[in-house]
Amino acid sequence: MKRNLLRIAFVATVIFTMNSCSSNSEEVTDNSSNSTSLTAKAVSYNYTETELLTMDLINDYRVSVGLNTLEKINYISVKSEVHDEYMITNKVVNHDDFVARSEDIMNVLDAKKVGENVAYNFNTPESVVAAWLHSPGHKANIVGNYTHFGIAIKSDPITGEKYFTNIFAKI
Hints:
By secondary structure, the chain is of the alpha+beta class. 47% of the residues lie in helices and 19% in strands. It has helices spanning 2-20, 49-64, 74-90, 98-109, 125-133, 136-142; strands spanning 25-29, 71-72, 113-120, 148-155, 162-170. It has a 5-stranded mixed β-sheet with strand order 1-3-5-4-2, with helices on both faces. A hairpin with a 6-residue loop joins strand 4 (148-155) and strand 5 (162-170). The longest helix is centred in the first third of the chain and has 19 residues, at 2-20. Mean pLDDT is 83; it is low at 1-25 and 29-39.
């Protein structure tokens, strides 16, 4: 019974969040108490120099405003990469299946809160981070109460345009 109520509350939170955030920034919160192992952090992910620089810029900004740095988790970056591939394949920039991604991260990593920023066709880490910081919804995720994050930046093999998915989690 308690789990059903938590699921209903979770779905209501997701629906509210999806309707209240900007189109390129999302957040989901889970108040349940899972005891799932963090072994998923052992997943392999090969970061590009651009991805690492983008993460550094986000952490540098957080420190500049008195916040903690975020620890990267490969599992979250893998989830980000899957979403980039979806956006490239479908030629869209959106948060489709964000609820499934966030529930997965909550279940596997015992995350309490998950947020997501996406972007399209920025040429440098500096330009995408600057754009996110100038958008209230994106900035809210960057400065949010999170402890971990992951990112994937993938190029469309036909157009060369870059797709960005940056997922934040509080673990």
